[in-house]
Amino acid sequence: MSTHDHTPPGAATGPAGPPPRARTRKATGAPTGLTQGSRARGGIGESTLRPDGTLKVTGEFAYSSDMWHEDMIWGHILRSPVAHAEIVSIDVSGALAQAGVHAVMTYDDLPTDVRYYGLEIQDTPVLAHGRVRHHGEPVALVAADHPETARRAADRIRVEYRELPVVTDEASALAPGAPVLHPDRAPHGAHPNIVHRQPIVRGDVGAAARRADVVVTGEYTFGMQDQAFLGPESGLAVPGEDGGVDLFVATQWLHSDLRQIAPVLGLPAHKVRMTLAGVGGAFGGREDLSMQIHACLLALRTGKPVKIVYNRFESFFGHVHRHPAKLRFEHGATRDGKLTHMKCRIVLDGGAYASASPAVVGNASSLSVGPYVVDHVDIEALALYTNNPPCGAMRGFGAVQACFGYEAQMDRLAAELGMDPVEFRQRNAMEQGSLMPTGQRVDAPAPVAELLRRVQARPMPPERQWETTEGADVRQLPGGLSNTTHGEGVVRGVGYAVGMKNVGFSEGFDDYSTARVRMEVSGGEPVATVHTAMAEVGQGGVTVHAQIARTELGISRVTIQPADTGVGSAGSTSASRQTYVTGGAVRNACREVREQVLRMGRRKFGTYHRAWATAKLLLEGGKVVTDAGEALADLADVLGDEAVEAELEWRHRPTRPFDPHTGQGDGHVQYAFAAHRAVVEVDTELGLVKVVELACAQDVGKAMNPLSVVGQIQGGSVQGLGMAVMEEIVVDPVTAQVRNPSFTDYLIPTILDTPPLPVDVLELADPHAPYGLRGAGEAPTLSSTPAVLAAVRDATGLDLTHTPVRPEHLVAAALAAAPGRTARN
Amino acid sequence: MDFLRPASWEDALAAKAEHPAAVPIAGGTDVMVEINFGHRRPEHLLDLGRIEELATWETDRDTVRLGAGVPYTKIMESLRAELPGLALASHTVASPQIRNRGGVGGNLGTASPAGDAHPALLAAGAEVEAESVRGSRLIPIDAFYTGVKRNALAPDELIRAVRIRKARGPQQFSKVGTRNAMVIAVCAFAIALYPAERRVRTGIGSAAPTPVRAEEAEAFLAAALDEERLWDSGARIAPSLAEKFAGLCAAACDPIDDVRGTADYRRHAVGVMARRTLTWTWEAYRAAPAADRREGGAV
């Protein structure tokens, strides 16, 4: 067990620490450098503790919503109450007349001709322009000296809407005469309301289908999941004396934000200085912009620092959600349990704006076979424009929806063949060397069968755990403390699932990270400083980067500088990529520093000892040592009062786009695999579910920080559990309005819904990745949902095709048979 | 918005008389949510937090006088024997933090059909002690809920306490939510047996515009138990009898479809909970020594 210094934000951070007060001027609450020292080595493979962990659990961590600045005013966004309407007029005079209001802005007040933004397609208006396309779309901005004043002023803006018919699904979006959401966009597919479409064809499905002994078709629907991060969108924009702006914000990718913000403001990129503020979770929901441009616009307009903080209600409208999906699959297999072919069609609802829909489509199609070998496929995935809330990135990113479908199909096939569902999966499991439906060869370990074996081999949790000598412990039962059963109607079920997720950005994207590493002496001790623009959103990059620096540089004191745009892009904290890509950049920058230090040592001390010239030299324990273990010099003496610094970019192997017609191409760089076994107990009379145990086995290549890896796997598993039994944004099918934008009615699992989560971590090195590591954050989110659903199907015998499963789905037969169903008594 | 902070109960009554539209706030479970969401912007908030007697309770031989602000945690910890149904209901309220703050007075003041305390108060036959500068009165719980989020309080009245007779027989409470803790009721059900009076009372939550009793079901069950001399024999209740009772409880519902559940599901679930809770209370009654049963003591 290593020990650590936990330096709270605001405390001095050592000589190489950033000058946060100067940088943020009078702003407080922006994160400062996090110094980590360790008596033990604290290098890679150790479970070093998060520097911000104690602060977070004691409520002292400064989140982006905690920031404050002298003379600060508050921004507020007026949003559309309807899903689709023409804006006939906007009258802001009532708001402007209110005391305490500093500015009101609409589309017409935008400073430049760049008035749209977007991650991949610039289709999202900064403020609505003549038309709103979804419930909650931003229409106008208010800045006032108090948030309540801003809200009240927003209520006094008169917007006349002329409502338009809504499109909410494939049938209505593609119907003849359907309203076209983005008429100016060049058609991309058969209909302008299709955002993106990706077919994949390989082999001869028709011929293969004729060889199948059994063919199983299934249709599945996947609800709209929210990232439900705990820290709502928030940030602080401070106008600079040079006409620029300093923006402190919780985001996932500073440079992507910057690329979208600066043109709208009419500023060169270097005049928009961004610093990461304390992030309260992300899960994909911070990949798109939320309040960034709005705060900057108001700050530049008023000349005052502007803070914007969404409340939970607004947060549900302030970020994209996971795409709901309709999935149709046909699988065939021979009598001996080998898959013959697969056909599928996946329709994703992208909502009103594109966001990350094209990339989500690419994942859904290319990963729709799952971790199985199927030589003959005919796949189509597409995303629609509708008037539903915009959907985009969320942990698992297209692979989650596909996994829910193909894993249900695997169980149906196994049942049809009378085979054990795990054995059936193992017979078709991909392995190293297998071909993807895209024609790409899997060139790293793919231990799919082994992961399944491990979760299946675990001992089962004991039956009837609720029975105690004093009676039933309701916490162990479906319904929990609500006291709905003492064992009546409770049936156990077991389900398995396995999934695969691509790691890193795919389809030819130039996916790189930048790292700057510096070494110098402080207090007689060598200290390394790592500076990247990596957004720490809870994934543990701050820990891992320090571990890499300790391992590569052989020193114990490492300072992680705050992430900002003063250094090059670190890419997105998403796609399970940060440890891989920014970790790779930090590793290489450290190695460059090491070479420079050794050169410096040879210059200074080479004449004193032959080994400087002849031996292989290492940095270890703050010294230069030979590979035979002989110490040649203290790093402090080598460095003296000089600092050594290296900054470089690092890229993973390039990928290629998928062919638009055949889907062929080496589109992905790495795959992550996880398998789950879920054990559930279902109250079959009330339709309530208790997940009793959710076991996971995952290959991570190299557990850089085993504690963090297990935390990621457990967190991802629970997020998938939530999707299985409770999490769904309900959108009214007639009005396209969100019906449950609150944590009162959008439920996420509590600790009493969270079962024991045993985790089995494999470390089969990927020879292409730094340290052999494999991105770990998303894979556990894939298979937990289908595993829980499989277990509920096993318990109830029901053919459940929608997730999340709701009580009324589980007691549908009783409801259909009930008297007085239609007429009230 | 003015924040009134009376230091005494008398001052609070005077403030409420002066500002009848003032919204009382104690734990803030409902009021703060409404304010934070902008659903409500009262001219005056009347903070009852400084009035110590609201957070206390008194008991005499038969009755608990439960201060309107006694937090649910206290009910769970200290009044389990006297008020078992309400203690079970208290367990299902929100999170530990909110149970440390919220009390029954707030549930009654809001009078939401989803309030967790209501079914237990209905089954226990509670009385609401309402007071104003004009005087004090007891409102029977059966007459308290007058509509969706409406109650029988006059504009100048505050809830001082709830008077609840100590349990004289087994009580149960059960609530359906789509999460195993910290969840608003999809529907809820409470039952109390009164062996000495050979009566049964019920309460249903979230399955009608107001919390309601299943009076027809109560009458049917009381008659059936008498007819079959089950109070005396302590024999098991036949499944058919429990099923009939459950059906009548379901029929007492007048639910709606909403984002939390369908009307059909609510009616069905109330029936299941009625059958199960009747079985649990009856088994507890049967398990008690015969002498206790005859005297109708707490079981």
UniProtKB/TrEMBL annotation, chain A:
Pfam families: Ald_Xan_dh_C, MoCoBD_1, MoCoBD_2. Residues 1-51, 460-486 are annotated as: Disordered. GO terms for molecular function: iron ion binding; oxidoreductase activity. Residues 58-165 form the Aldehyde oxidase/xanthine dehydrogenase a/b hammerhead domain. InterPro entries: Ald_Oxase/Xan_DH_a/b, Ald_Oxase/Xan_DH_a/b_sf, Ald_Oxase/xanthine_DH-like, AldOxase/xan_DH_MoCoBD1, AldOxase/xan_DH_MoCoBD2, AldOxase/xan_DH_Mopterin-bd_sf, Xanthine_dehydrogenase_dsu. This is Oxidoreductase. It comes from Streptomyces sulfonofaciens.
From TrEMBL, chain B:
The lineage of its organism: Bacteria, Bacillati, Actinomycetota, Actinomycetes, Kitasatosporales. The keyword Flavoprotein applies. This is Carbon monoxide dehydrogenase. The keyword Protein transport does not apply. Residues 1-169 form the FAD-binding PCMH-type domain. InterPro entries: CO_DH_flav_C, CO_DH_flav_C_dom_sf, Diverse_Substr_Oxidored, FAD-bd_PCMH, FAD-bd_PCMH-like_sf, FAD-bd_PCMH_sub1, FAD-bd_PCMH_sub2, Mopterin_DH_FAD-bd. Keywords: FAD, Flavoprotein, Oxidoreductase. Pfam families: CO_deh_flav_C (PF03450), FAD_binding_5 (PF00941). It comes from Streptomyces sulfonofaciens. SUPFAM superfamilies: CO dehydrogenase flavoprotein C-terminal domain-like, FAD-binding/transporter-associated domain-like. One of its GO terms (molecular function) is oxidoreductase activity.
